[in-house]
Amino acid sequence: MRSTWIGILAGFIFAIGLGLAGMTKPSKVIAFLDIFGAWDPSLMFVMVGAIVVYSTSYHLIIRRKAPLFAAKFDLPVKKHIDKPLLIGSAMFGIGWGLGGMCPAPALTAMMSGHSSVVLFVLAMLTGMYAFQSMGPKV
Known about the structure:
Blueprint: H1 2-21, H2 26-33, H3 42-61, H4 83-99, H5 103-109, H6 115-134
Helix pairs in contact: 1-5, 2-4, 5-6
């Protein structure tokens, strides 16, 4: 139960950060991706900040025998780049570029009630369901 509350708190903090950074606004994300037009580099600072925090924290945390709220670390076992990873990454990037959102900011932006956000999330959930029902079992 304690780990559930920690997860909810972490998700809430993450959602606040996404909102403050402007990552819930498709126009801001699209402006970041428009490097040959009206480019807005401000999200680059958000990404660099996240990378610094993650890489520093990861190296400190992974030295522990186990996480604070779980029995063991759940780390990826695959260490190489393969075709499914490249295809999935390309699909994610294309969707991000076309929609101006990726999953976490889209879920956060659902609170706005904008029809474009709701449509994006419904399409995303439909794709996830299709993958689970027709795709390989993971």
